[in-house]
Specification:
globular; two-stranded antiparallel sheet; 13 helices; mainly alpha; single chain
């Protein structure tokens, strides 16, 4: 008799958060983004973190990854084709640019994933940095706060669960806006935590 063994369940949200925080640490932490005023790096790094861990932890196609996160297949392809070593060599120049390039976010996420899997991520330290007054003021900590607030919430989230989502996000600020206000600007259903972060980021840009 052949026994079917279920694959190990992966907590994608927690792993993506660890990779995101490690990537933030690699570029010099929130202070480095403050120095260059590059807050657009935050959602881009989070999307790249999800794309990389989904590819490495069981998702087979770019279409599946794009669907889960809520970004285009081409964006996923650009993230996954990035060369971490090349990104590191060009990092200083990239930091001085206004917006993060997809390949830069992808390369950083790949490098961060390797560090996390090797056990070289220091979550308590990085979280403490992200939770400083300056980080909150600049909106750097909001993806962390959102992921923490929605932990355990079932996805997809449709209009029927909108009140629950707003309740969970009460008090969280995304840039200059309350998260509860931003929720009113996004489209439902929300496919996943990554899709939520992407839609919140796009809503505040508009």
């Amino acid at each position: 008799m052949v026994i079917q063994v279920s694959p190990k369940e992966v907590d994608y949200d927690t792993l993506a958060l660890r990779v995101f925080l490690k990537a933030l640490e690699i570029i010099g932490g929130p202070r480095k983004l403050f120095e260059y005023r590059n807050l657009t790096w935050i959602p881009s790094l989070m999307e790249a973190a999800y794309a990389v861990i989904l590819k490495e932890e069981g998702f087979k196609t770019e279409d599946e990854i794009a669907e889960f996160i809520g970004i285009t297949k081409q964006t996923v392809r650009n993230i996954l084709s990035a060369d971490p070593e090349v990104v590191l060599l060009k990092l200083q120049g990239e930091l001085e640019a206004k917006d993060v390039k997809v390949h830069t976010a992808g390369g950083l996420a790949k490098l961060a994933y390797q560090e996390v899997k090797a056990g070289r991520d220091y979550i308590p330290f990085v979280i403490s940095v992200c939770e400083t007054y300056v980080s909150k003021l600049l909106g750097i900590a909001w993806p962390v706060e959102v992921l923490t607030a929605i932990k355990g919430m079932d996805f997809p989230v449709d209009e029927m669960k909108k009140d629950e989502l707003q309740s969970r996000l009460a008090g969280i600020r995304i840039k200059d806006y309350l998260a509860t206000e931003v929720i009113d600007r996004i489209e439902f259903p929300i496919k996943s935590p990554a899709d939520l972060l992407h839609k919140l980021s796009e809503a505040v840009k508009g």
